[in-house]
UniProtKB/TrEMBL annotation:
Residues 140-250 form the Cytidyltransferase-like domain. Pfam families: CTP_transf_like. This is Bifunctional protein HldE. The keyword Glycoprotein does not apply. It comes from Novipirellula artificiosorum. It comes from the Bacteria. Keywords: Nucleotidyltransferase, Transferase. NCBIfam families: cyt_tran_rel. GO terms for molecular function: nucleotidyltransferase activity.
Length: 270
């Protein structure tokens, strides 16, 4: 299989970035050259919104990524640094990152240059379910609007309990519960981001109403456990689990050690 490299800051990683990573991974084993904080400042002239450790943590959780490598402080965005023990076969870029200089560099170094167009990365396909492991089934529900490392950490912790099924609230119900202006991102986009993490067995969109809008999906999944964080702990959920013989698990809302706590509400201004 070919080795593919992409090079970027992946600062404030978005659904478009995720689509690019997914399509790039179709070309071979995907390696990410992640720009250091110093490189981001040098290339963009601005401070990174998220520090290197947080950007790395997010990328390591993406199911399409094989390995993350790190740039040095001084980085030419139109060439690739030497990476010990690794030589790419393909350098994949999107339209924004395309350049004649990159093409020239690839031609001189025997590397295939691959451009992914906006048309190729359009839309939000439903991520394919991962094979079930035979462990317990665990379901989580939520809005997952403005996806961030707090969500990644929650999914990581819950996945340690068993195979994780994520049910994303549908747009109409999110507006019902949270009011106008919500959600920021459409249901298919939110499902896509959740389902693109390696910790998630399957991501679905809810079809019910209220705090138990995921009831139809839960009845289909037949989970052993329903996990929530402290913010998502609701009497309706506790009662539902009691009536259906599902273990109810409440986890503390804590970031990955060393990272800043995040919330979608705080990030709305980004």
């Amino acid at each position: 299989m070919k080795s593919v490299i992409v090079s970027s800051s992946f600062d404030n990683l978005s659904s478009r970035d995720m689509r690019f990573l997914e399509e790039a991974s179709q070309l071979g084993e995907l390696h990410v050259l992640l720009w250091s904080d110093e490189a981001v400042r040098s290339i963009t002239g601005a401070e990174p919104k998220f520090p290197l450790a947080e950007r790395e943590y997010f990328l390591q959780a993406v199911r399409y990524v094989t390995k993350v490598h790190f740039s040095e402080a001084a980085l030419d965005p139109d060439s690739l640094p030497d990476i010990q023990g690794f030589r790419p076969d393909v350098w994949c870029v999107d339209e924004q990152g395309a350049s004649a200089e990159k093409q020239t560099y690839c031609a001189a170094h025997g590397i295939e240059y691959s451009l992914l167009t906006a048309e190729q990365t359009a839309g939000y396909p439903v991520p394919a379910p991962l094979p079930a492991s035979g462990k317990k089934k665990v379901v989580v529900t939520g809005c997952y609007d403005w996806f961030h490392t707090g969500h990644v950490r929650f999914f990581e912790e819950v996945s340690e309990l068993g195979d994780l099924y994520v049910v994303v609230g549908h747009d109409e119900n999110i507006r019902l519960l949270k009011g106008d202006g919500h959600p920021m991102f459409k249901e298919d986009e939110r499902r896509y981001l959740a389902g693109s993490l390696r910790y998630v067995t399957q991501a679905l969109v809810s079809s019910g109403t209220g705090w138990m809008d995921a009831e139809p999906e839960i009845e289909t999944i037949k989970p052993d456990q329903y996990a929530v964080n402290q913010d998502g702990d609701k009497p309706e959920k506790r009662e539902f689990c009691k009536q259906h013989g599902i273990e109810y698990v409440v986890l503390e809302r804590t970031p990955k050690p060393g990272l800043t706590p995040r919330s979608s509400t705080d990030l709305r201004g980004f």
